[in-house]
Amino acid sequence: MSKLIVIIGITGIQGSSVAATFLETPGWKIRGITRDPSKAAAVALSEKGIEVVKADLNDVDSLKAAFLGATAIFSVTDFWAPIFQPTAASNAEIEKRGVPPNRYAYDLEIEQGMNAAIAASDPAVLKTLTHFVYSALADATKWSKGKYKMNLHFESKGKVVERIQEELPQLAERLSTVQIGMYTTNWKINPAMGPMKREDGKFVFRVVDGEQGLSKVPYVVTRKDTGRFVKGLIENPPGKNMLGVTHSMTQAEYLDLWTKTLNVPNGGIEAITMEQFISKMPPFLHEEMHDTFMFGREFGWTGGDESVVLPEELGVETSVQGLVDYFKEEDWSTVLSQ
Question: How far apart are CA 25 and CA 238, in angstroms?
């Protein structure tokens, strides 16, 4: 009998990767959750044989119905949606609450993450469920001992994990987490997070404090590797906490590999100030980006959590070749033509 994986956000970057992996995994059926099964991305998945159903992270009952019969559930929430893809409803709620958009996003992500967890804790769902895999990040306030309190998009996910463990013991027995690393595509949202072309034609990485600010970054080719990470977690007993990383390297190492792969000149690392790094971001994100950057530099992506395992420890092979392949396949025209 086939097993069933239910994927929240199946049309998103992480969810679509999980779907692609399990489409190629014998013995598994896929049910994908989306708010609008009629949109093109959802229809395309249906045409591949995936069952696509309508459910909403704001509606626990709709999630319970979608989860019935699941062997495994992949749960992911999107902190950034109300900020970069706001709706009239989210904007109205932000105005009503009188809070910055990232504080609203923090509260909403915890609420939605817990809605999925509560739905998965229904006895009818637990009857068949062996794994609940949550896309998490470190609680930066906790792991920095209160030093960095505004890394909200990390902390919100960490709070969901904490609440599952404290409030939903039966689901906690089935819980595994994947802490997805730095998206290799983040430069598309913020060009300062990738190589930039200097006036002399050479490409540089602009880093706060320059060479003194270099630290290992867990880069991840999210669309390709998230599914492999989730599959590895499901193939192992629950209770695992994985760092989802394709390859870790400093920005200098990343730039060296990128320039060699694309055969363009390497201009090295250029020092910038924190003020320069955050200057082009909305003012309400300045403190958030400061604390995110400094938390990663001082405590590492996962905050020094000793429970974290690497993909290889659970049988998921990764290597620097994954980054090379991404560099070759990506469209860099906007970077190269700067």
Answer: 19
